[in-house]
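Changelog-linked ticket: pyridoxal-5'-phosphate example.
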Amino acid sequence: MSKSITRPNNLEAFWMPFTANRQFKQTPRMMVSAKDMHYTTDDGRQVLDGTAGLWCCNAGHARPKIIEAVQQQVAELDYAPAFQLGHPKVFELASELVEIAPSSMNHVFFTNSGSESVETALKMAIAYHRVRGDGARTRLIGRERGYHGVNFGGISVGGIVSNRKMFGTLLGGVDHIRHTHDITRNAFTKGLPEHGAEFADDLERLIALHDASTIAAVIVEPMAGSTGVLMPPKGYLQRLRDICDQYGILLIFDEVITGFGRMGGAFSADVFGVVPDIMTTAKGLTSGVIPMGAVFVRDDIHDAFMTGPEHLIEFFHGYTYSGNPVACAAALGTLATYREEGLLTRAAELAGYWEDALHSLRDLPHVIDIRNYGLIGAIELEPIAGEPTKRAFTAFLNAFENDLLIRTTGDIIALSPPLIISKEEIDFLFDTLGRVLKKLD
Ligand SMILES: Cc1ncc(COP(=O)(O)O)c(C=O)c1O
């Protein structure tokens, strides 16, 4: 197939998100096509996707079931209003999703992104307490180093300084428990860290400060991805669950990265055996093909809204594109692909091989920690004094030149390939990365 224009003439107009714009525009990195595990660049190179795009292309690229579903849908029903009207695919998708969700979560609200899923979940939590007559519970608790997207609710409960400091006072009534990263005790742990379950007790400190009667919900990523892949210490999530139960606080798991197979099961709620009250998802829901998010809720939370006169809207929230037919088709094609290829559990099957290959890099220069679970991994580098992020960014640029896409956050390299990766491709990934790390200043 011929590609008409592979390099635009003018790069100025597009203000790129989360990008060093000036650096990129001097030396652009352009992807022009993708298939399965690889991107093709505009200079004709095959680049192995070590990050599933942005943690989203879990089924790999250009998968036939998804392409076919989208093509058919866009020709059949491109759009239907999302408010007061429906279409068959959105109901079909919700039913399929609740089948793979934890057993008490039988209702789904659709959004268009992880950020919107988070806003939806936070609003649901506050409104839930209000509809059942406990309207003083409005406070939201996040966690230091948490990432919950970029909207105001998400950055308020989030805990990444650079995502917060430019944007004023953020939402009121928000507080944070401490993060769980503890290299001193847990460096080079394979799987879940032994130490740190007690960090969950920090919630008790905030309860003592604010009183539980003012707290609506706690939101955490079961595995904190964007901040640099921080695994939950053993027993930590259960401890959070217990404290929330004790004080009537809702527990929200942000599974935007961990959902849809990344950790070795459909959701980390199953993998870690701790079920939240509300669960936010996006990314792997459509394998990144069409923007879509979904918020799963426990039955009694949904049911609490279903009261009052039946002609009245129960929840004043929703998006023009909630449950867009083409997005639904992409999600159904994605779920079919996951099912037919066993992808939701493939990370568990490959985890041992992945872990060994990843930890083989532990003695390379500047490496101060390596961590992993399922098909996710991180290599933390010692920052260059006075120039944080530069060492990892250099690794990113060098890896890209050597046909490997990795992701960096701060001085941490994060790896999360599509779930279809082969053992040979895992070998290529870590051989290439090893060579790149050896050459780093
Ligand atoms: C845990 C988590 N929540 C929310 C988001 C935001 O998702 P989006 O970029 O689709 O808005 C992300 C994105 O990486 C995420 O990792």
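Closing comment: Example verified and attached. The chain has a mean pLDDT of 97. The first helix runs from residue 21 to 26.
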